[in-house]
Amino acid sequence: MELSSDCHVPKYAQIADIFRQRIARGVWTQGFRLPANEELAAEFAVSRVTIRQAVKLLARDGVIEAQQGRGTLVTGPCGRIRHTRSTCGPHSLRCCEPLRKWSHAADPQSKGS
Fold first, then answer.
1. Which structural domain, as residue segments, surrounds residue 42?
2. 63-94, pLDDT tens digit by residue?
3. Which is it for strands 71-74 and 64-67: parallel, antiparallel or unpaired?
4. Is the pTM here over 0.90, yes or no?
5. In 10 A of CB 87, how many CB atoms?
6. d(C-alpha 55, C-alpha 66), whole Å
7. CA 50/CA 48 separation, integer angstroms
8. Residue 60, in any domain of the structure
9. Taking 80 as the threshold, does the pLDDT of residue 28 lie above it?
10. Following DSSP, what letter does each residue of the chain receive, concatenated?
11. What is the CATH number of the domain that holds 53?
């Protein structure tokens, strides 16, 4: 899978968004064990450090959890979703779109946009 090199968003954040999309679309369901970091690094043509950064970001947000002896597992559909500003290319996450639309509707300054 190719990442956007023209994008201002770091590769690890782009990968984290791709993982979030896989979870949101049901490709990776609750309890799914993520492939090994080496396999993911090969898929995205990045280092294992980059994959670890993406995994760390998702673990911090409660989307996945590393379990001793079991691997890294998906903990839920979106965990504690945190909107990242990675809006470049086809990998941007739209989980927060309904919330964003609602917040704009409630904001009188955004009526004209």
1. 11-110
2. 999 988 899 999 976 544 444 444 444 444 44
3. antiparallel
4. no
5. 14
6. 9
7. 5
8. yes
9. yes
10. -PPPSSSSS-HHHHHHHHHHHHHHTTSS-TTPBPPPHHHHHHHHT--HHHHHHHHHHHHHTTSEEEETTTEEEE-SSSSS-------SGGG---TTHHHHHHHHHH-GGGTT-
11. 1.10.10.10
